[in-house]
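TASK: fixed-backbone design
INPUT:
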């Protein structure tokens, strides 16, 4: 039997550990070269497939691929590009089949979040809808932790560790200055509809930090919020607020909405922190500082969670194993089988139940007043940020790998997207 080649690509916002999943895919594929030939990576996600811009990962040494485990961001480039339905854009699917045929691709691994799962699900249907056999496996990734069925998402544990650490350190700073200067620190974190990342900031409460959280799941009651902030400052001398970018007013408007849209049609967000900081200043007169974690939170490989790195690699490895077992249209998942001690195993979920489905914070993870997290939430979060997995350092800086990313020779006419 002739070995089929595989297509692998990264999609959506990248993470500190998405390359660990790439490492898992490529290293596992190399162990099964009799059945699985070369792994071609799409340059800039699914766009690489449509434009026949493929990268030959076989041109990379084993050492370079292994170094992906310690390197943040997307080694092959990512994208925000969502395939339309077959009815809406048959041309794209016909092009994908042309590219897959031209390069003998029979396996499709797409590493991303909810929108990426939708793309992967559509690809998995090519055999049925267009007569081309391809096994499509989604490799989960999202700092937002909002994919359903899986206990957690690779990328989340590390961003949660970064946010919890940053909240703790910044709060120590504010505490030092509160008597005569800054009394309020506001940290804005990612999370459009789900407050998982913001929740991680709540872990500092166990260190004696007066912290408040604004979740997307809880409408902002401005009067109650400001009263609670004032109470904490009077009691502790200062207060730290962690606000999700998706925090909303009661009328449904985002605090941070800019009036623009991203490539997926989502409202472009950014600016909740200054809104909250000035809201407090106007009501109380307290001096403030604010920060937006932005790319820092998802790129901080130097502070990655060991649990997260191991799970990211395992999801890449499991995707290849599932494909070789004949599976299609599924996503490997993380199943928590024990809380204390924390243990997990690989499961699976059908893409029909994953694509375009968001997992929100359960109400019992959020405190009754809506501004904090509960003990059950802490029990969920703490194992995910456990352990350190430092990259190698050289001359005081992390030693990250940059791949050669040698292009595969094109065999088809150019394609405009």
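OUTPUT:
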């Amino acid at each position: 039997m002739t070995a089929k080649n595989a297509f692998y690509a990264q999609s959506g916002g990248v993470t500190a550990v998405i390359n660990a999943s790439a490492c898992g895919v490529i290293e596992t594929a190399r162990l099964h070269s009799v059945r699985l030939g070369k792994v071609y990576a799409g340059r800039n996600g699914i766009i690489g497939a449509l434009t026949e811009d493929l990268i030959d990962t076989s041109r990379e040494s084993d050492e370079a691929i292994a170094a992906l485990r310690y390197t943040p961001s997307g080694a092959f480039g990512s994208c925000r590009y969502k395939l339309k339905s077959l009815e809406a854009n048959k041309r794209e699917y016909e092009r994908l089949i042309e590219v897959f045929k031209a390069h003998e691709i029979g396996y499709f691994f797409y590493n991303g979040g909810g929108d990426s799962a939708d793309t992967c699900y559509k690809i998995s249907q090519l055999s049925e809808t267009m007569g081309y056999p391809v096994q499509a496996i989604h490799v989960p990734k999202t700092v937002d932790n909002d994919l359903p069925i899986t206990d957690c998402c690779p990328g989340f544990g590390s961003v949660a560790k970064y946010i919890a650490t940053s909240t703790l350190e910044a709060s120590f700073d504010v505490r030092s200055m509160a008597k005569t200067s800054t009394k309020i620190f506001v940290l804005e974190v990612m999370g459009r509809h789900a407050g998982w990342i913001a929740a991680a900031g709540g872990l500092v409460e166990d260190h004696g930090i007066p912290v408040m959280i604004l979740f997307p799941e809880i409408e902002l009651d401005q009067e109650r919020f400001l009263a609670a902030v004032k109470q904490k400052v009077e009691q502790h001398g200062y207060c730290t607020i962690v606000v999700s970018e998706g925090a909303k007013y009661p009328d449904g408007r985002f605090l941070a909405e800019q009036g623009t849209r991203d490539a997926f049609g989502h409202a472009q967000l950014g600016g909740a922190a200054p809104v909250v900081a000035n809201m407090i200043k106007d009501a109380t007169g307290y001096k403030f500082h604010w920060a937006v974690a932005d790319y820092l939170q998802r790129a901080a490989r130097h502070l990655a969670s060991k649990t997260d790195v191991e799970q990211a690699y395992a999801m890449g490895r499991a995707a290849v194993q599932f494909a070789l077992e004949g599976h299609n249209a599924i996503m490997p998942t993380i199943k928590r089988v024990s809380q204390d001690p924390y243990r997990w195993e690989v499961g699976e979920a059908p893409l029909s139940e994953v694509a375009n489905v968001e997992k929100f914070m359960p109400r019992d993870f959020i405190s009754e007043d809506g501004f904090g997290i509960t003990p059950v939430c802490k029990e969920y979060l703490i194992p995910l940020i456990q352990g350190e997995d430092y990259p190698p350092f050289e001359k005081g800086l992390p030693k990250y790998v940059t791949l050669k990313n040698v292009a595969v020779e094109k065999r088809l006419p150019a394609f405009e997207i």
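COMMENT: The CA atoms of residues 276 and 282 lie 10 Å apart.
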